[in-house]
Fold this sequence. Notes:
This protein starts with a strand and ends with a helix. Strands 2-1-5-4-12 form a five-stranded mixed β-sheet. Helix 3 (about 100-110) runs parallel beside helix 4, helix 3 packs across helix 6 and helix 4 crosses helix 6. The protein is globular. The model is unreliable at about 1-10 (pLDDT under 50). Strand 1 (about 1-5) and strand 2 (about 10) form a beta hairpin. It contains six helices and twelve strands. It is an alpha+beta fold.
Amino acid sequence: MSRGDNGRRLPNVEEEFDRHVTEGESAIWIWAPIITKQCPECENWPSYHEDSNCEYDETPTEEWSKGLVGFKPTAVFDVSQTEGEPLPELETEATGNVDDLVPALLDAAPTLDIDVRVLNAAKWEHGDAKGVCKHPNLHECQPVVEAKARSNQVDLAVTLIHEYAHALLHFDVDDEPERAKREIEAVAYIVGRYFDLDTSGSAFYLAAWQDDDAESIQERLGRISSTAQEIIWTVAED
C-alpha cells in the first residue's frame, strides 16, 4: 500500500492505477494502527485474550466491538517513489456513513473538557481552515474548538475529531511541532476508522522514529492510543 504526498492512502497502486515502485527505491517504515475486535475486559484482541488470564466470557468473540489494540511496523512507498500512468485526482472531503456522529461529538465535548462551536460562513473568521483549536485564555479556561458549518456532515465529523485530538494532545505544547502534528493526525485517523469514516485525507501514519529510543517511541504510541480511546469511548457512550 502506498500513500501520496498529501497523506492519502492508495489502495493498490500497481493493480488499480497501473503504477509500480521505481527500481532502487527503499520502503518507508511506519507505525500503522491495529484496529480489531477487542475484549471488553482486558482490551486484548481474541488471540491475545485466549493466552491471557482474563476470564471474561459474557459475550462471544464475534459480538465484541472493535478498538485500537496496538501498532505494527508496516512498509509503504510514497507516490513519488512510483512510476507509470498518472494518478486520478483524489477527493478532498471525507466520505462515509455518519448517521448521528456529529451530534454525538458535540454532546461529548463537555465530558472531554472542550468548548465546541460550529459556525456558519458569515461568522467564520479563519479563512480556508475547516476547523481550529484555540488556547485557553483569561475568559476561557479550556480549549475551544471551532468548526465551519457545511452540508457534508461526514467532513464536519472528521474536522471535529481532528480538532478534539489537538485539544486533548497538544493545544498547549509548542515544541516538536511536526511530531505533535503526526500524533494528532494519527488519533484523528484511528477515531475516524472506528466510526467507519474515510479519513484518508489525514496524514494518519506515523513515520517510524528511527532516531529515537524505544522508550520515547512507546510513550508516543501510548499517548496516541489513550487519546483515541478517550474520544471513542466518550462519543460512543453519548
